[in-house]
TrEMBL record:
Protein name: BLUF domain-containing protein
A GO term, aspect molecular function: FAD binding
Superkingdom of origin organism: Bacteria
Record-annotated BLUF domain positions: 3-94
Pfam families: BLUF
UniProt-listed SUPFAM superfamilies: Acylphosphatase/BLUF domain-like
């Protein structure tokens, strides 16, 4: 079964609490099950990183809602692809506030997602620095 896979990172809004993150997790778990979407939401080190896998229409619906959600900002998509099948059999939440039990494979995938997100942030930082250097040199 072909699935659509999308991953992004974002910054939590200032003042986000453990209760807010739990509410996000509960809402996402219900909505994702209804849409046949699996994946992982990671909340750590003052950032969200999410991998979503499922039908294209479902992912588009979720991303529309995610982009409109004021509980986070600075959304950066770093993975956008189709795949032969989902990487995960369920939707998982991992938070600095509450840690969910994960299988070894799920923990390995979590590390892969975090690594890719950090690489994406490093690329964005380099692009911004280079743009600033070019702008400084043009003046």
């Amino acid at each position: 079964m072909t699935v659509y896979r999308l991953a992004y990172l974002s910054r939590p809004a200032p003042g986000i609490t453990a209760a807010d993150v739990r509410a996000i997790a509960a809402s996402a778990a219900r909505r994702n099950a209804d849409l046949a979407v699996t994946g992982m939401l990671i909340h750590e080190f003052n950032r969200f990183i999410q991998l979503l896998e499922g039908p294209l229409e479902a992912i588009e619906t979720l991303m529309t809602a995610i982009i409109a959600d004021k509980r986070h900002t600075d959304i950066r998509i770093f993975l956008n692809q189709s795949a032969a099948g989902p990487s995960l059999s369920r939707w998982i939440m991992w938070s600095d506030f509450d840690r969910m039990a994960m299988s070894r494979r799920e923990l390995e995938l979590r590390e892969e997602i975090v690594r890719a997100a950090l690489e994406s942030l490093a690329e964005l930082d380099a692009e911004r620095r280079n743009a600033g250097t070019v702008a400084d040199g043009a003046a």
